[in-house]
Amino acid sequence: MSARGEKYCSEACLARYLEARNWNVDKSRKMLEESLKWRALSRPEDIRWPDVSVEAETGKMYRATFTDREGRTVVVMRPAKQNTSSHEGQLQYLIYTLENAVLSLPEGHDKMVWLIDFTGWTLAHATPFKTARDCMNVLQNHYPE
C-alpha cells in the first residue's frame, strides 16, 4: 500500500467501510480496495482551489463555518445556485468539498452533516443525469457513512 493509502486507512476509515457493508469483512475489503484504486487515479488530495474556484462562485456548496450540536462539520449544498454545466468541474468540486470537510472534522468525529437548501430550485437547475449518477457513485462508494 502506498503512503497515501496508509494515511487514508485510519481506524475510523476502516470502521466506516465495515459499517457501510454491514460488517462483512470481504465486502468491506473489496469496497476499500476500489476506493484506494479510485484515489490513486483521481488523486483527490491534489485538487486545489484554483481548479474548482469557478464552481464555487455562487456558493452552491461549501463547508459551513459552524458545526451541528454534536460538533460535526456541516456541508451546505444549495442546488438553485448551480452555475456551470461542466461534468468534470462539478465532480471535482464535490470531491474537493468532501476532502476539505473530512480534513476539518474535529478530533473524535468521523462523520459530517449535509444541509441541502432547495430554496429557489427548479428543474432548470437540475444537474445532468450523468453528473448526478457519478456524484452519487463517489459519495456512496468512496465516502461511506
From TrEMBL:
This is CRAL-TRIO domain-containing protein. One of its GO terms (molecular function) is phosphatidylinositol transfer activity. Pfam families: CRAL_TRIO, CRAL_TRIO_N. InterPro entries: CRAL-TRIO_dom, CRAL-TRIO_dom_sf, CRAL/TRIO_N_dom, CRAL/TRIO_N_dom_sf, PI_Transfer_CRAL-TRIO. Signal peptide: none annotated. It comes from Aegilops tauschii subsp. strangulata (Goatgrass). Residues 49-145 form the CRAL-TRIO domain.
